[in-house]
Amino acid sequence: MLTRHATTGPFEALPNPRGGIVRSAESALAEAQLAMVQREDPTASLLQGARALREAGWLAAHRFANALALASSMAQADAPHDDRHRAALSDALEIFRAAVGRHNLRELSCSPALFAHYRALGQQIAQNTPGYATTFEDMALAARPVPPVTLHARPASTLTRLRARYERALLPVLRAHHEGAPPPDIHGALDELDACLAEAAGPDPYDFWRLAGACAKALRAGGSATDASNSARHFYARCNLVFADHARGTPLAPRSLVRATLATLWRDYALFGASAEDADQVEVLHDYGLTVDWHVAGTQASEALWESEAAQAAQTDPAAVRTTRTRDLGVLTVNAHAYEDFLQTADATIVALSEHARQADNPEKADPSAALQAGDAAYRLGSAACALGLGHVALLADALGLAWRRRAHAGVTTPAVRSYTIVDAPDARSLDHAAEALRAMLHKIAAGVAPAHSSAALAALTRAIELGGAPDPARAGAA
After folding, report:
1. d(CA 59, CA 148)
2. Which of 240, 232, 227, 230 lies closest to 167, judged by CA?
3. Domain-by-domain residue ranges, the chain?
4. In a 10 Å sphere around its CB, with 0-12 CB exposed, 13-18 middle and 19+ buried, how is residue 83 labelled?
5. Could you report the per-residue pLDDT of 229-262, keeping only the tens digit for each?
6. Rounded alpha-carbon distances, angstroms, from residue 134 to 41, 108, 137, 147, 212
């Protein structure tokens, strides 16, 4: 069950007091804000901040900073004295600067408050750039690979009956969103929608209806299913359209819908963490390369106490913060204690991942449980890197965890199930190359040097995840 943290201001997630700091970006954003107050052009400072955020691997924040710079440039060119545009830019810059200062990478990716300003900036930019669009998933899933998602073959008559049931249950839900108040039978309607999604689900772990069912449960757990949020309304309505595509024999779910559904599923768990009862939804997230933090306490009372102490730690006296021992890794400044803790576990993880990759090269020794262990190891590394602020390392580690998950599922599914899988799992060579790229990044970090960008290694791994690895000889012979 999702637990929303009681924090002040527009943000709901906890700040990350031991997270990395991009000082050059924070300085650039402060200069941009001062320029706004003095009615000067902040574009150059915003671009400087965007470059620093990109170098640190804070890719969602980089997107936001670029949108700020583009909107600022257009505002200067079109209406330098337009107070309405300047006020909107100032508000967006203020909340963005506050978010960057909280050092929480998942919040920078998934904050609804931050995205509301990002969307407003996009609307302003679109007035001068036709076709420019901003979506929540573009920010939340920036640079992340997303595997193909299937719609397994089912009789059209079965899907037509399911869609009719779904549409009857959908009407009161959409009415609730339109009228702003849920009708008395809303929970019964949501139960029926859940039942339809579960009945439509197929055996492939990457079946769209499995993902949609997890998203529906997350919306209900977070309270979004019965409010007027656009994400919930669009999700339920678009699922109705997928039933029609499925009945026509479409083999893959629309990529745009998969990304939107995945981002919606991840949003509240990324911000607020997960509890034991959320294990099924978290397992689905792991299958797609996304991780969450688990709640640290067993009761709401004890967790509230922990949150209060964490919030106080985040508001530590600035003089004390300045005396904290730190290490500089390029543009990123990290807490020395957190840095040392990270290094203690990272090297052992990389050794294990490399060994798993070598074993995966031998089909006779394929072990799905070992693949799951490798995926979990990569996710632990990704979560630790994310907490430290090492965005490039976190992104590549999560992508490697996703690749191992796909290998694990490919090893445990039966031939009948695998006949529904459109894309083969990543080959062992791509797993080994990604592990070696991670090793090289960690060696630089251990030497106190900023790791190189992971773009080439990530691009290769993304191709393996989204397009498949080398063909499986056994499957090729069967075909």
Report:
1. 23
2. 240
3. 21-140, 156-287, 325-478
4. exposed
5. 677 888 999 999 999 999 999 999 999 999 999 9
6. 24, 15, 9, 22, 22
Residue 181: closest CA among 224, 227, 222: 227
Mean pLDDT of 437-458: 91
For 247-259, b/e burial (b = at least 16 CB within 10 A) is beeeeebbeebbb
What gap in Å lies between CA 460 and CA 258, rounded to an integer? 21
Q: What is the CA radius of gyration of the chain?
A: 23
Q: Are 390 and 335 in contact (CB under 8 A)?
A: no
Task: Report in angstroms the alpha-carbon separations of 164 from 169, 193, 196.
Answer: 9, 11, 10
Backbone angles phi, psi at 326, to 5 degrees: -130, 165
DSSP state of 452: P
Assigned fold of 325-478 = Four Helix Bundle (Hemerythrin (Met), subunit A) (1.20.120)
CB neighbourhood size of 448 (10 A): 11
Residues forming beta bridges with residue 334, ordered by sequence position: 327
CA distance readout (Å), 186 to 80, 192, 199, 227: 49, 10, 20, 11
Residue identified by tokens 């939107």 is 260
Q: Please state the pTM of the whole predicted model.
A: 0.89
- Residue 118 near residue 64 (C-beta atoms within 8 A): yes
Evaluate if residue 227 carries a pLDDT over 80: no
